[in-house]
Write a structure and sequence with these properties.
179 residues, alpha+beta, three-stranded antiparallel sheet
């Protein structure tokens, strides 16, 4: 399975050999640049750490020289102000997603982040850059419709947004209550 992940990552990295830098659709940093250029307001984010990709994907078998970087990462997480959430460039942690899915206030889950996180690890393995930024941003409760968070999807083609739409609940309120 690791060879398959390495093969996918090599294919992703090939994009960066092109004359223009490829847009990383899963990158918060790339989206923040994109929306700033478009003049669209966004929730501000501060990069609090940058982890070497190779170190992140070997989290289950760290090298001695990784210790300082992991300690700095933990210190950065500990310095995040109350009311802020943390995330890797490509995703938030499973604890935050679970709290949101259960309709709970995220509380401490906003600041839980680990490369061992089963949700994050798969996304981190496929992350197509050599460094993985870690971000902090103020917590903003999701807008809801019929008790479900409203989400947006934007499609990018040739480094430009080609379509966007607002997703509403995939189920009605009765289904939510019985799920």
């Amino acid at each position: 399975m690791r060879r398959e992940a390495e093969s996918r990552r090599a294919a992703h990295l090939a994009c960066f050999a092109a004359p223009q830098r490829a847009f990383i659709g899963s990158s918060l940093g790339a989206w923040l640049e994109h929306v700033a250029q478009a003049g669209v307001a966004a929730v501000p984010a501060t990069q609090i750490a940058a982890l070497p990709h190779a170190m992140v994907v070997r989290v289950d078998r760290p090298l001695a020289e990784d210790a300082a970087a992991w300690h700095a990462f933990e210190a950065a997480l500990g310095a995040v102000p109350d009311g802020h959430m943390v995330r890797f460039d490509c995703c938030a942690g499973i604890a935050l997603k679970e709290a949101m899915a259960q309709g709970r206030e995220p509380g401490a889950a906003m600041r839980e982040l680990s490369a061992n996180d089963p949700r994050a690890f798969d996304l981190l393995c496929d992350y197509p850059a050599d460094t993985v930024p870690v971000w902090s941003r103020p917590w903003m409760a999701a807008h809801e419709h019929a008790g479900w968070p409203v989400e947006f999807r934007v499609f990018v083609r040739d480094d430009a947004s080609s379509a966007a739409w607002r997703l509403l609940a995939w189920a009605n309120e009765e289904k939510k209550e019985t799920s």
